[in-house]
Amino acid sequence: MANIMDSFLSATFLFIVIRVGVPLLYASMSAYVASIAGIPNIAVEGIMIFGALFGVYFSAITGSAWLGLLGVILIGVVMALVMAFFTMKMNASPIMIGIALNLFATDFSVWLLMLWTGTKGTTATLPSKVLPTVNIPVIKDIPILGEIISGHYFLTYVCIALAVFIYILVYKTPFGLRMKACGLDEHAAESVGIKVNKVRLIAIIMSAVLAALGGAYLSMGYMSIFSSNMTASRGWTGIAANAVGGGNFLIVVLTTVVFSFAQGVVNRLALTALPSELVNIIPYVCVMLAMIFLSIKEMKKNKAN
Amino acid sequence: MNKKKFKWTDEGPFEFLRIMASIGTALLVTFIVLCIVTKSFALELFIDLLTYPTQKMLYFGYVLVKMVPLCFAGLATLLYFRTGLFNLSTEGVFYISGVVATWFAINPNIMTGNEIVDSAICILAAGVSGALIALIPGFLKAKLNADEMVISLMMNSILFGIGYYIVLNYLAIGGITGTASADFIDTARLTKLIPKTQVHTGLIIMFVMVALVYILLFKTKLGYSIRMTGLNKSFAKYSGMSAFGLFMTVHLLAGFIGGMGSGVELMGLYKKFSWSQLPGLGFTGALMANIGKNHPIGVLLAAFGISYLRAGAQLLANSNPVIDISMISIVEVILTLLISSQYFLRKWRGKQMLKEEQKNG
């Protein structure tokens, strides 16, 4: 037991937390960007699946990981356009659209997998490419710190850059203000001349591309193949983190970090003799407890008012 | 006598037309996709897909058997949706209730040897456990107003983990840790309804449940409260029934139906518990409720339709490498997208109504 405790304090453990946390952060950011603009994106999980699958497929047929990544972004945009069309032009409930797209992605990816490889399990037979890992010069030579933050996948650093970008976009630019206005009250936003549909379209595209990148991270780095069900509820964890954050980006990120630690602990405990079925539920229990804690806090706040 | 003339633009017929147009579009897209995949004009294959299940009673039996869990999941989800709750916990409820039913079905000390009593014990145990489990998100929603969708999804993963642990460690055959439970005792299993097919008496239970949900929704005070609360959240407050009580009751009922569905499915179709992952019914139930317009009869029809196509795809999958049951997701997604689109065909309706106006001067 002491051995396990020690391993939680090591640099490798923090490295693992970052490794497992990145797809969660992509998912959280995806949910966040859409929800502050007033169109909740429930399809994060489904778009991640497609991102992961098409990244592998495009990189395999083009022979280039970078063209694969471009394909991932395109798939994200296509999914966003479908969502935007049905929610904004056809007045469908975004929740229902999200549920439908999730189920579609889960099943349809299995079918595509079968068409492309002849099996329903993985894309192991496709000659897909992975995105490179990056060693940061100078920092990689610093003891401990270098071990923790250098040597991650390319998309890890993209994720961190995008987090900074979203923070600046939402809190420091007029466009961010417009997004929040659309989320708070679309009619009020419209009355002051904001083109609500345009702002929301951009937000949904950003959201879907973020989710797709999260998927690509899983199949073009974290692992080098796509396997069915590989997203394993990460998209939903992101949506939960966003719900806990309640519109505050820093709290969303912080919640994601907590969930990442829980996931890191799971990965570590998987090496022990503890039953993996029970260990696997730790992150979900954390999310649920966080949601309950948040609800109690909200309720107290409402009562105080 | 002032008999009203039938018009396609009236509320009822227009709704029918919309659903038909959605089905038409979904099938057309499926046909196009088939043509693309086979790189030919795949009309024959498409017709096969649509007619295969009617060729033999055995095949049609698949349709009937496969629609049972879809219908139960749809009925459970429908109750949530009608109340305005986006709860998807039917997935996890199905799994854990199945585990409970299995515990009873493999236990010779509990099984009496009487076929009706034994299957009833297993199915009711599944229902009751489902109802109790559903009370957790129900309580969190009713008391704390916690986001029921996220909670229910997290619960699905948690219930699966716990259920799978129980199956592996307590229900598997003594000594050997396998992925499946011991065999169900024969008397626990539901009897065949139609010989030479897989159709079991669970089909009758399903029809009874559809009728009961119909009566509950449209003929009782509780059903009225459920429908009104779905339309307007503050209704429950003014109806005299507390919102807390209403939410708890709805979760209890939906959990019971979901759990029962699991029991019926297992006792009807399986020899032992062998689900090594979530059965995927939480989301499908949501689709059934949506395609069926949140109406019990609609859910029944939706479950039949989707099950029919899935059976066709599964039967063809044996002889054709490009066809698989997962392909039917195209139909499901298009139906859901179009049926939930309130503006679908609205322009056409507007034009027709305008023409009518002009004709009448």
What is the CA-CA span between the terminal residues of chain A?
47 Å
Mean residue pLDDT of chain B: 89
Number of strands of chain B: 0
Strand order of the largest sheet of chain A: 1-2
The two chains with the largest interface, and their residue counts, are: A-B, 48 and 46 residues
Written account of the structure:
The complex is a heterodimer of chains A (305) and B (361). Chain A contains 14 helices and two strands. Chain A is an all-alpha fold and 305 residues long. In chain A, α2 crosses α11 (234-245), α3 (44-62) runs parallel beside α5 (94-117) and α12 packs antiparallel against α14. The radius of gyration of chain A is 20 Å and the shape is globular. Chain B is an all-alpha fold. Chain B has a domain at 67-280. In chain B, α1 (11-38) packs antiparallel against α13 (329-339), α3 runs parallel beside α7 and α3 packs across α11. The longest helix of chain B has 30 residues, at 115-144. Chain B starts with 10 loop residues before the first helix and ends with a helix. At the A-B interface, α4, α5, α11 and α14 of A face α6, α11 and α13 of B.
Describe this structure in a few short sentences.
The complex is a heterodimer of chains A (305) and B (361). With 305 residues, chain A is mostly helical.
List keywords for this structure.
heterodimer, A: 305 residues, mainly alpha, ABC transporter involved in vitamin B12 uptake, BtuC, two-stranded antiparallel sheet, 14 helices, B: 361 residues, 0% strand
Blueprint of the fold:
The complex is a heterodimer of chains A (305) and B (361).
Chain A: H1 2-8, H2 11-36, H3 44-62, H4 65-89, H5 94-117, E1 133-134, H6 145-149, E2 152-153, H7 154-172, H8 174-184, H9 186-191, H10 196-222, H11 234-245, H12 249-269, H13 276-279, H14 282-304
Antiparallel strand pairs in A: 1-2
Chain B: H1 11-38, H2 43-51, H3 57-82, H4 90-105, H5 115-144, H6 148-171, H7 202-219, H8 221-231, H9 235-238, H10 243-269, H11 281-291, H12 296-317, H13 329-339, H14 346-360
